[in-house]
Design a protein that fits this description.
The structure is a homodimer. In chain A, 49% of the residues lie in helices and 17% in strands. Chain A is built from 21 helices and 17 strands. Chains A and B meet through helix 7, helix 10, helix 14 and helix 19 of A and helix 7, helix 10, helix 14 and helix 19 of B.
């Protein structure tokens, strides 16, 4: 059997080969809203770079290790807008990113705010996560339509211009667009470079047509037709890809959808609709989990206690279904009195979009439910739920590493990387309870205990089964899951896309 | 060209022929939650029959004009439960219904309450109309699971027993089950009579799998497998039928779905999945609209006024999207000052489930928005919105008959019969603004102005277009729609189902 290092080297070589096949002597152009570096304007007039974080940035940063990359991001701040016009600053900042050249798509602040704070974040995110009380929200009023027409669309056009500026002299540039901020960028690129090779990948869920059907035709058609200007449109799961095909069939009359070939034919062009489940950087995740700080924290969390540990790690937001997770735990404690005093629920909750009213309201409800459980069951020396409300990745991995059971019950989730991290860092043969509605479920179904997110009773039952599961069975499942995560890692995600694009570029 | 009377006679004859082909010398057994007659227990110990109302009862009552029908309904009240055991009472009560024999499926009050007030009405209705704020509702707790297991399922079994009692001695009874109260009745019937010919028709929307995926597996699988015990499963639209096929594929592992043939094969049985858009009784609707009372009311509503009339008729409930309808009207008044004083919005809102908190809250929000519009734009002698909050069918038809524009913008709707009534009774060549998400849209798309329900700006635009539409165009569209409603009426709906069943019964 090959050693993990051999496998890693081979996987890296495969990625390099796919990249070369696609690019020749070109640079790969990647576009995302948030870039690998952001600039902070100081009060003294200076502008200083700061490295970005987040899964997407980490994932895409890797490509630079294998091929030269030009990365176009939105100028999100005043600092970014100033850096956009200062090649020296950009060059200096990109120095930290191997193989990466940095560029900004820059629009006026008001335009960006409309695109980001009216359309992308509150509107598209909520829509695609089905997080609305539909009888009342959304209300597509004049403000929303204006933000679409004068914010989102112009921002996408600015991206297209910035990308085209990097593709000067190349009739067939290779371009990867990312996520729900950039549904309309391919079309203006395609107009200028009919033979460009362009892909778009959506990181969040793609809901069924009945959801798109509730919103303004100009927006849903703009999104569908915008995406059809790509050669490849990628999603996290087969179901999301299918939902996209159905959406196109519903709203783009001159498109011909082939459900077997997974293609859309429109105006003599073919768009391939694929799914590429994203994953984590296995080595990097292990490195953090094995760091002295994370190890130390793990020992502290474990303490000398003989309690079983139930753990969750999530951004504190409604789609993560945190409320029902605690209700299920409450049901469990109520049904199994012998668990009281012998189990702790450690919830690592990362602050998220704290400015949004819906998030604030949700956070307060979560706190109320937790207070209720601690008041009802807690006693001196035993606190049923402990909340860690901070952004501390090493601590969160430490929590996952010592868990007996990890609860991941999102209402809906593009992928959910916590499930994959938990598998990788577990040191106590954790059993995973996972929502069927998480994208990750498609790859992990055979090794987890499935739950339907609204099913509080079913979730309590699954927790009980997980806690009672013999160690051999837990170990067997975890080994199965771990092999999957190691095999289908972030390199695999990227390579498959590059290979598909190379094949199309012929 | 044939006269309408000729067409009517032919249509009746076709229905009679289909019924005879299906039944031979049998009675057709129909099962619904609410029957054509209900019984009221008096304080003096007496039990008095009262005729039921509602579209379904009217529609199915017609079958009795053509063939002998045994109608099994739930004993909903104490009076019903007593009548259930009193053949004389039942016989006397059924006298008013041509050809109809009346029977009750009777369960203990607590069982019925659980089925009706925990599962069917708040749970399935809300789920299938996507009326939830999903991050918080539904919560499937022990109470819901108990109501499913000890309420809904036993009620369905009681229906099966009552139906089988009527099918004594018949190895192949013909049975039509109706709506979301009876998803699980076919299975116990099938066990006792493997060769019975059974259909089920769902009158409300069938949401996509991503919605079913959020709820407890025992419930969604119970529903899917329960329905597969029928020979024919009918829905209002092709999209709902498709959603059902997808649901079966997702949740019933041993079922084989054929999307081209619209069939499901499971355990050596085939279920045919069809769509039969329901409609209205054309003659009966016209009779009410032409009644002196309705005519008089129409004249009063019209008054001597030279105002344009915008009209809506709806049960006051969240799925009807009444709030956004008023917001669109407000946008219209704001954008077109010359309309002020020259248009009235008459809203005929029928009280509905006033005991449900969600409905009460929604009603208050509607009132607030209306008060806001009247305060903002109203002036002496002109009230922009008038609400008629009562259950008065003749008055509602009167309102529709004098409308210049009818607004029907539900968030989602199984069919929406108001759209069809409006077409039939209009005396002023009304233009219709209709949600794409109403089942009726599939049949009426060519003659209406379409709107997406959350699109307030688009709805305001559609109202403006409707108000500005030349009378010739309005007349042309209305004639087109009217021909459709006359052709595809309630008799047509029923006949197609009987024909399909007759073909299967061979």
């Amino acid at each position: 059997m090959a050693s993990p290092d051999d496998a890693r080297a081979r996987s890296d070589a495969d990625l390099g080969a796919a990249a070369s096949a696609l690019l020749g002597d070109r640079r790969l152009i990647i576009a995302t809203n948030r870039g690998p570096v952001t600039f902070v304007a100081g009060a003294d007039g200076s502008v200083r770079p700061r490295r970005g974080s987040g899964g997407l940035v980490t994932a895409l940063g890797q490509v630079g290790h294998h091929v030269p990359v030009t990365w176009v991001a939105a100028a999100m701040s005043e600092g970014d807008r100033r850096a956009a016009a200062d090649p020296k600053l950009l060059r200096a900042a990109a120095g930290g990113e191997r193989g990466v050249q940095l560029r900004f798509a820059s629009v006026e602040r008001a335009v960006y705010e409309a695109a980001y704070n009216v359309i992308a974040n509150p509107f598209l995110w909520f829509l695609q996560h089905q997080m609305w009380n539909l009888p009342e929200r959304p209300v597509i009023d004049a403000g929303v339509m204006r933000a679409w027409e004068r914010g989102y669309v112009p921002l996408n056009e600015a991206f297209a211009r910035a990308i085209l500026a990097q593709a000067r002299g190349d009739r067939t540039p290779r371009i990867m667009l990312h996520d729900y901020h950039l549904y309309c960028a391919a079309e203006p690129i395609r107009r200028a470079r009919p033979k460009a090779v362009i892909s778009h990948f959506t990181h969040i869920p793609w809901p069924p047509s009945s959801i798109w059907q509730t919103i303004a035709p100009a927006i849903r058609e703009g999104i569908a037709m915008g995406l059809l200007a790509n050669d490849v449109v990628g999603f996290q799961t087969e179901r999301y890809a299918h939902n996209f095909l159905r959406m196109v069939e519903s709203f783009v009359p001159d498109a011909k959808v082939d459900y077997d070939a997974w293609t859309v034919r429109r105006r003599r062009r073919t768009t391939h609709v694929r799914h590429y489940p994203i994953s984590i950087d296995v080595d990097a995740t292990r490195r953090v989990a094995d760091s002295p700080r994370s190890r130390r924290r793990a020992d502290q969390l474990l303490g000398g206690s003989r309690e079983r540990l139930l753990v969750r790690v999530d951004r504190l937001e409604p789609s993560k279904n945190i409320l029902r997770g605690f209700l299920a735990y409450e049901t469990l404690l109520q049904r199994q009195p012998r668990l009281r005093g012998r189990i702790s629920f450690l919830a690592f909750l990362v602050p998220s979009r704290t400015g949004l009213r819906e998030y604030g309201d949700y956070g307060r409800k979560v706190q109320d439910v937790v207070d209720g459980i601690n008041a009802r069951f807690g006693r001196s020396g035993w606190r049923p739920v402990q909340i860690f409300y901070e952004n501390d990745y090493a601590q969160a991995l430490a929590g996952l590493s010592v868990a007996d059971v990890v609860l991941i019950n999102p209402l809906v989730d593009g992928m959910n990387l916590v499930a994959k991290e938990a598998v990788l860092v577990s040191r106590r043969d954790a059993a995973l309870v996972l929502s069927e509605t998480a994208g990750a479920f498609d790859q992990m179904a055979d090794g987890v205990l499935p739950v339907a997110p609204a099913d509080v009773v079913g979730t309590a039952d699954a927790l009980a089964v997980a806690l009672a599961m013999p160690v051999d069975e837990r170990r067997r499942r975890l080994a199965l899951l771990r092999r999957g995560v190691e095999r289908e890692d972030i390199t695999w995600w990227l390579r498959r896309q590059l290979e598909d694009l190379a094949e199309l570029a012929g």
